[in-house]
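Hi! If you just cloned this repository, the fastest way to understand the data is to look at a raw example. We've pasted two of them here, unedited. The first protein comes first, obviously.
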Amino acid sequence: MSGDLTRLTAHAMAVALRSGETSSADLAAAHLGRIEAEDHGLHAWLAVDPPAVLAAAREADAALARARAEGPAALAALHPLHGVPVALKDLVSVRGMQCTAGSRILEGYRAPYDAHVTERLRAAGAVILGKTNMDEFAMGSSTEHSAYGPTSNPWDLDRVPGGSSGGSAAAVAAFETPLALGTDTGGSIRQPGSLCGIVGMKPTYGRVSRYGIVAYASSLDQVGPFARDVRDAAALLHAIAGRDARDSTSAPVPVPDGLLHLPASDDEAAAGLRGLRLGLPREYFVEGTEAGTEARLREAVAVLEASGAHVDEVSLPHTDYGLAAYYIVAPAEASANLARYDGIRYGLSVRVGDVLGDYLATRGRGFGPEAKRRIMLGTYALSAGYYEAFYGKAQKVRTLIKGDFDAVWASGVDAIVAPTSPTVAWKLGAKLDDPVAMYLSDACTLPVNMAGLPGVSIPAGLSDGLPVGLQLIGRPWSELDLLRIARGYEGITATAAWRTVEPHGLAELRAVGCPTPTERAAALGAGDR
């Protein structure tokens, strides 16, 4: 097969693999070559093991050869991701591989078992390329809080890719992998998806098992897919979703096979929009929303209406309280989850002579500033005398937020359309000195986590040359419906000029002496903060 294999979508790779036009080994080698050549200036990856990747690819090719020998039915029985490379955020357990969660406190830790999603990917025949960079313990919105240095945005290497799953998003946008997994606690898949100009989906809470995922906030975390188009994201979700007895929050809800059969035709996909009723929440145009971001969203709504969808303004009145409630609930759960990192059982261990001193020294050295900030916030919120005033009240607000969404669904709305992020990607370092400004970047995404709903961000154009994302929010377990709407929007905008624009930083990544993101951040200096 001629051309750059890394530019293929995953579904195009599947066709080429089954026809014998290419091999899984060739796909793996092409992506490994791009990572080696370009990731110095991007820093999307924390661990890649080329010999293991190529060995897994050869196994996938052997299975493909056996299926070809058995006939068309055997080939059709293979999962569409068979032989396709996938990246994993570095909080997903892979037996024998590092699992740092972006923190020094887990430096050197190697997972002794596979996460449920890892098992599902292996069963599908996917090839795991490696582990991607992330904000420490998924605490952040920019991937600048990684203990191993920040990641750059392929659209502008001086800017952040979003977070906390920024490494996965940047790797997909830069063609270093066709697919990746992230986790979304308050927007950590959808927001970097928006800022990097790709598709990112947060499934319904309980749709995907959290077994083997390093926990941040257990009632909010959910694993989900990144891809460069909707059909690929749907196929990856199909591979990882489903009940897992090892996770009590994993729901026994069937995974729809329709995820593998979204329309290939743009016209057919667009036809599915006719007659849909979509809600546009007035509260999601939050203070600080950039003019270009709002303009792209309004244009997307107009395009949806022109295609036969009905878009009506709706109200989610408790949205304004979502940010405050989230930053009580999430840190409270984080303070409990991170208590296990004590320097005794695994990970970093600093010895100073006594048990309490060892404990304090290990956590003091192992956790970064943002993790410490959230541990302190959460511990305070759960402390005697403050539990009901803070955590208990936040949980009540959470119930009210869910009630707002329930009222919208009861009114007959099929899905909600909203901004994903109120801004495009910002400069490295620009918000590090103002944590509240950083937190506000998730104002449009975190209510979805508080209510346990599915949401997906899809590209919706450019503002000042940088990607803008359109967010679709649905009823519980409506991932297939959401992805059909997303595929419809993809279809009606297939010929839009902005879809032909590639990330501007790709050429620079191959330049000799391309600075690392850490060097770029230092060069930008405090003046940009």
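Ok, and the second one:
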Amino acid sequence: MKLSARIIFGISALLIVGWVANSYAAPTAEQRTAEQRMYNLMLKAGNLYKSGKLDECAKVVKQVQVEFKEAIKDADKPTQQLFSRVYNSMKRAHALLELEGVELEAIPPIEKLAGAGGDTPEPIGNAGVSFVNQVVPILTAKCGNCHIRNARGMFSMSDYETLMKGPAEGVVVFPKDADGSRIVEVIVEGDMPRGGLKVADEELAILKKWISEGAKFDGEDPKASLSSLNPDATVGDLPMVELTKATGDETVRFSRDIAPIFVENCVGCHGAGQRPSGRLDINRFSAMLRGGESGPPILPGKAEESLLIKKLLGTGGGQRMPLRKDPLSDEQMKLITTWISEGATFDARDGNQPLTEVVAIAKAEDATHEELSADRSILSERNWKLAMSGLTHQQVESKSFLVVGSLSESQLSKIADVGEDLAGKISVALKADKSTPLIKGRMTLFVFNKRYDYGEFGTMVEKRSLPRDWKGHWKYSIVDAYGTILNPSSEEYTIDGLIAEQLAGVYISTLGDLPGWFSEGVGRAIAQRIVKDDARIEKWDDQVGAAIRGMAKSTDFMNGKLSPEDSALVAYSYVKSMMSNKQKFDQLLGQLRKGSNLEDACVTVYGGTPEQLSDNWWQTASR
């Protein structure tokens, strides 16, 4: 018996339980730290007990009792809930030590210790409780999704016999000992049920009375499924939480205020690994809303019911989060709680983006031109070293560019001068605002002397193979903006043409979340307009016909159905047709600068979506 008791105590010491108040009044970071310290002491006591060091174990328990009394004095309900796992651990320790003949000071109910009076009388009559008619509906409604339909946490209550057997960790129902039964503890302390479901006080009273009466089975077959015992009982499904875009009226922004907290404290365990802990992926917003084994961790508008808040406070069962780290500060908890209370909205572009990208983009959007320029300079150095490790390089800064390459400083300066001249022409052609930089944070130009070096940049930095016929390309991601140039060794193409195409494409991309084909098309159309005597550009009009004839539908170039080069050529032709009416194209850019998406802007200016307009263009262009 003693060995069994010690095993039970050791297992119990590993279980963390708690609940959250009906009205949110969060325990402070100081209280959470104190609770964690006392709980760690109780874990130490458990190890001492298992080792047979009863006197040392009792000494630690007595120490915790003294600290606990002081900590719980005049505590409100949320604070009582926070300290409930320490309280329950002390109760278990008392029971086991008393079996060994160790005398300890009695532990009153936690409400009495806090000065809030005794236990609330159970609101139930004297009649016996029916498992089939009264208990099964409660278990089905509140536990059915996780433990009747499934066996979450390796625990099934699919039938009476399985329920009474319990999981591998031990029995959860002790007949005639309701308060000592694990199934009652996890409900009282808020660990279960999860996903926003609640066991009402009167339902808990029924469950406790059934256990106190011996946890008897009043059906015909204890192996019969609970659903067959009471077919009218309904399962309470976990809620489905959908992504809601921010309105702009929120006082807390996810990307700026919440995502950095999650990145620093959560994604290491919940998203960075191949199998996130608890199958909860916090590294992507959409995945976080779907939740893990315990359902969605966030219930928009209901901070006090959200499992995330409970876990961060240490009142949600299991380990307090973040695991093996200091508790979040009161300021961080207030931000997260306010964000959930305001609807847990999402203010970034894509709910499937890693949160590291969401944070980086938010930082870039909030940065000044000078701050973003400095950040991009660091990125350029990192990318060059990644692709060209050991290869000496120079860099030159100008108003609109950071030019990096293995050329001489004077050669890079000439390229920067060419770029600045083109930037002025592009600004005029696209009616850019002259009071602000053409590209916030400047644009980096990587210049390579060898085709091999250019290819290595694609392999190492962009994780892809670049087409053999490419002479350069550009990328824009808000966080970074760069172009790549293979230094011409003949008159086959010019640096002027490459810079004009890339700079115009990047500038258009800064106007909003636009499709790549549109930015690429504008880039080529502008380059064709302002750069002369470039053999590569002069071939575009001759080459586009073959690309168009290879299309099955007018929208193939928009939907990735063509090769990158054919898609760019067709986009160039299509955008040129849009630009043929200069007044309308200027109006289109004006709509984009106001925040419209491309589809709405095209409908406003041209009377149809890009897809609808492409039919007429295709019929003319394919003749």
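That's it. A detail worth noticing about the second one: The two ends are 92 Å apart (CA to CA).
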